[in-house]
Amino acid sequence: MSCAHGICGSDGLTINGLPALACQKLLKDYDYSKEILVEPLHFFPVVKDLVVDLEPFFKRNRAIDPETTQTESSSTENVSERLQDQADRNLFDDALKCILCACCVAACPVNLKEDTEFVGPAALLKGQRYIFDSRTQNPDERMHVLDKAHGIWSCKSYYQCTRVCPKGIRVTEAILRTKKKILQEARPKQKQEG
Question: Under DSSP, is residue 190 helix (H, G, I), strand (E, B) or coil?
Fold first, then answer.
């Protein structure tokens, strides 16, 4: 049974050429007087029938985490709650809706045709979430990870990720904001250090 809520992201597939969650689609959404083509998500290796191997997707999401992380003292003494105001939260709030369904990656022309090693929109969205979070201890290091080959600059802003996102996340806008922040903050620091 499908939940019809699009919560888990586990039923992504391609319907008439567009990635979607099966639980959110109804037959009435399509012209069923014509053939409806249902395929596995594009870009991913097919395991069987409509099932794809999402391990490359999850590997790319893990790849955007910095190699080292700065953390506060592990001591429980003098540790206070790290508060955040609503304005700071609004900078990345949309990214928290991501359910890791991989529809954005399956729709991305860059992943499909131009740079098959591109980390993909979901990984960049995850990176954006931490870069803009005022509680993050290492935003420069995270920006540096995205500012590498097959990273954020491979995105060509086709907006297909935003078009197919079942949660309505403005993925491309988040990526563009991250590019701007890297150009304004991370690159000048790299020039000063180098």
Answer: helix
